[in-house]
Amino acid sequence: MKLFCRLSSISRKRKLELFYKTMKPTGQTRVLYVGGQTSPDTAEGLQLIDLYPWTSQVSVVNIARAHVDLIKGRYPQVAAVVGDACELPWPDRSFDIVAATLSSNTQAASTGK
């Protein structure tokens, strides 16, 4: 399990570096984080929300209430909602960037498997 955690950490760091290099966000960039989560207290902050410098510009939609509640508790400035990415509560053109997190948990929840 230690090897998996190490490789996962390396992978997440590389994805975040690629996000910043490719998308070039600024303090005015509005970001929708689909499936967004925050790292557990004991984990190294490797989720976008934990490292993004302009969290007031981030909105999150996640199907899991526990994730949304944790984000709201840590980042009250983030508009975090429980919802389905196929039926977003924001109007079109509300965001400059849409970032997505997909895991087996979200796949299982959305497919019913």
State the gist of this model.
The protein is of the alpha/beta class and 113 residues long. It is built from four helices and four strands.
Q: Rounded to an integer, what's the Rg over CA atoms?
A: 14 Å
| Class derived from helix and strand content | alpha/beta
Taken together, the total number of domains comes to 1
Q: Main sheet?
A: 4 strands, parallel
CATH topology: Rossmann fold
Give structural notes.
With 113 residues, the chain is an alpha/beta fold. The protein has a single domain (2-111), classed as Vaccinia Virus protein VP39 (Rossmann fold, 3-Layer(aba) Sandwich). The protein is built from four helices and four strands, in the order αβαβαββα. The protein has helices spanning 2-23, 48-51, 65-74, 104-111, and strands at 31-34, 58-62, 79-82, 97-100. Strands 3-2-1-4 form a four-stranded parallel sheet, covered by helices on one side. It is globular. It starts with a helix and ends with a helix. Mean pLDDT is 85; it is low at 104-113.
Can you tag this structure with a few keywords?
113 residues; alpha/beta; globular; Rossmann fold; single chain
Q: How do the strands and helices of this protein lay out in sequence?
A:
Layout lengths: L1 H22 L7 E4 L13 H4 L6 E5 L2 H10 L4 E4 L14 E4 L3 H8 L2
Parallel strand pairs: 1-2, 1-4, 2-3
